[in-house]
Every structure is written in structure tokens, then in C-alpha cells.
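Module 6 notes. Inverse folding takes a fixed backbone as the condition and produces residue identities as the prediction. Think of it as a translation problem where the source language is geometry and the target language is the twenty amino acids. Below is one complete input and output pair. Work through it position by position during the lab.
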């Protein structure tokens, strides 16, 4: 029977640190030293940090209008939809086309700065998708995801991947903000159950959740519109029901350490090649550029989240 070794966390907060980013920092695409230190320390201690007032609301609104319409299409697929654990929570890719691509959303310089601070220069960007919480229906009553980790495999014990979430609207407990278990990024995959790649893989063993709850309980924070949420891939979390009558879309990009051998790639429209090269210069972007009409036809035909492989290529059993 596994037991979580208690650390000195009894007095640590369950609500994530939120850093208010100044207009000057947004304009320069760079946090000042003090805020970069705070973000880095928060990620090491908690596994998550929120950066507020980073993205213009009008730019989010335009993409949100499109993705809400797309979410209705995906929801109508029923059992064939790319749902994550339950049908109220779906995997949803954004349209990576010239019409809807906004660099401050998809290639944010501050996100690159923070992830580079944690993992070294020029992280690998290999995944861009989204997570959508749907309002309840008669066929799909409110449900929570099980508490889980996206690192549902034997992974390194050091920081190797960060998810950069961009909510397109304010996220609250009412519309399904994600429940997070701060500090749990230090636990390995032996605290999980479910086979890697299964729809319900990565679930944290229930008895261990109760132990952790006594030490540092989870929270379901409100995240302001215009924020970036940077989360260690290993952190325990779970999608919660959307009790509102509005679809809630949250983008998710994964930045891997430059040394981490992940083979995934992102399909972009050929029309974006110059933009990607310009705004992604601080990253190694594993991109495939395809005709725009091919992107438009295929971006909604994607698998559910746990079908993706975030592991390394050719990982050896004796790697630490």
C-alpha cells in the first residue's frame, strides 16, 4: 500500500499564486525580475501559477465565438465525440489558420520566458489543443472528472513539461474551472491507476487523495479572463461540471524541456509559416505546415486527451 510521505505543507495555501502582469511587461513580452522569480518559485513549490492581464479580451472574444460554435458540432457527435472521462468535458482543437491565429494567444512571449526559466532555453512546443466544459443536458448531467495527472507514464522526477492554459472567458466554479491539487507535481506515476492511453488513465488512487486532502486540500480557483495558467504536466487536477448555460473553452499548449524527446507535432496552415517563425523564435516548434483547406477539414477530427502520447521516444528503463 502506497503512502504519501507528509512534507511541511500544512500551512501552504490551496489557492494558486496570481501575478498581476503590468502593461509594460505585456508590451515588452517579458516579466520583470521580481515577477519572474515569483512565477518560478510558485511553479517549483506549487506546480502552477496564474499570470493575469496578459492577453487582450477582444482577441479572446473573436476566437471564443468560433470555438463555441465548433464545440456544439463536437458535442453533437455523442459517443463519438472526443470526450475526456465524461461527455461534459471534450478535447477541442482550435483552428490553426490565418483567420484565427493570434500570436499573443498561441505563442505568448511571457509563457516562453517562464517555461524557459524552468526548463532551459528554447523549450519544445509539440501540442496545441483545448479543453471545453459543456453545460449540462438531459443526456449529460453534471459530472466531475476523476482527479488525475496528465503524466500517466513513468516520467522524470524533475520539471520536464508545462501546460500553458488560456481560458477564453473568465473561469469560475460555476462554469467549470479546473480543480487543482497544488504541490502534487512531486509524486510519480505509482500513485495512479489506469493503463496509459485508456480514456480513464492517470487517475489518482482514492485512498491517497484522502491522505493528501488532510495535508493540502484542492481548490477550484476563479481565473480572470486575459490570464495565462502555467501548470506542471505532473500536477493532480480534475475537470469540474459547468453549471452555467454558456460553453467554457480553455486552450492548452504543452511546452517540453529542450532535452525531452517527445515526437508529437502540430499541424499549422501553410499561411502561418512566416508568423510561426517570427513569434516562435524562442521555441523549438515541432510544426507541420499543410494547405489551409486541409487544416480546416481536419482540425475537429482529433482524439480524446489521453489518446495522445506525452512520453519520450525510446525511453530506457534505467533512466532516472
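Target side of the pair, the amino acids:
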Amino acid at each position: 500500500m502506497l503512502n504519501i510521505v507528509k512534507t511541511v505543507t500544512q500551512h501552504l495555501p490551496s489557492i494558486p499564486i496570481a501575478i498581476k502582469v503590468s502593461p509594460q511587461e505585456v508590451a515588452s513580452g517579458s516579466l520583470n525580475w521580481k515577477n519572474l522569480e515569483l512565477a518560478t518559485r510558485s511553479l517549483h513549490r506549487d506546480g502552477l501559477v496564474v499570470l493575469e492581464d496578459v492577453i487582450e479580451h477582444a482577441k479572446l472574444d473573436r476566437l471564443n465565438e468560433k470555438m463555441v460554435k465548433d464545440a456544439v458540432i463536437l458535442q453533437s457527435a455523442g459517443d463519438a465525440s472526443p470526450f475526456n472521462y465524461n461527455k461534459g468535458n471534450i478535447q477541442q482543437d482550435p483552428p490553426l489558420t490565418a483567420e484565427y491565429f493570434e500570436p499573443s494567444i498561441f505563442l505568448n512571449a511571457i509563457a516562453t520566458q517562464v517555461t524557459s526559466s524552468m526548463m532551459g532555453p528554447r523549450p519544445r512546443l509539440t501540442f496545441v489543443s483545448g479543453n471545453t466544459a459543456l453545460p449540462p443536458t438531459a443526456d449529460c448531467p453534471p459530472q466531475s472528472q476523476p482527479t488525475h495527472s496528465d503524466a500517466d507514464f513513468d516520467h522524470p522526477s524533475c520539471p520536464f513539461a508545462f501546460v500553458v492554459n488560456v481560458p477564453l472567458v473568465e473561469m469560475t466554479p460555476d462554469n467549470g474551472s479546473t480543480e487543482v491539487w497544488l504541490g502534487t507535481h512531486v509524486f510519480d506515476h505509482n500513485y495512479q491507476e489506469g493503463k496509459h492511453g485508456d480514456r480513464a488513465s492517470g487517475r489518482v488512487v482514492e485512498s491517497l487523495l484522502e491522505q493528501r486532502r488532510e495535508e493540502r486540500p484542492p481548490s477550484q480557483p476563479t481565473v480572470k479572463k486575459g490570464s495565462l495558467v502555467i501548470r506542471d504536466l505532473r500536477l493532480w487536477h480534475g475537470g469540474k461540471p459547468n453549471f452555467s448555460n454558456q460553453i467554457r473553452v480553455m486552450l492548452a499548449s504543452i511546452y517540453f524541456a529542450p532535452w525531452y524527446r517527445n515526437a508529437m507535432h502540430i499541424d499549422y496552415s501553410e499561411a502561418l509559416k512566416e508568423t510561426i517563425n517570427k513569434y516562435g523564435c524562442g521555441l523549438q516548434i515541432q510544426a507541420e505546415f499543410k494547405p489551409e483547406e486541409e487544416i480546416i477539414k481536419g482540425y475537429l477530427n482529433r482524439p480524446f486527451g489521453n489518446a495522445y502520447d506525452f512520453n519520450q521516444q525510446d525511453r530506457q528503463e534505467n533512466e532516472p
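Reference fact for the lab report: Residues 115 and 162 are 7 Å apart (CA to CA).
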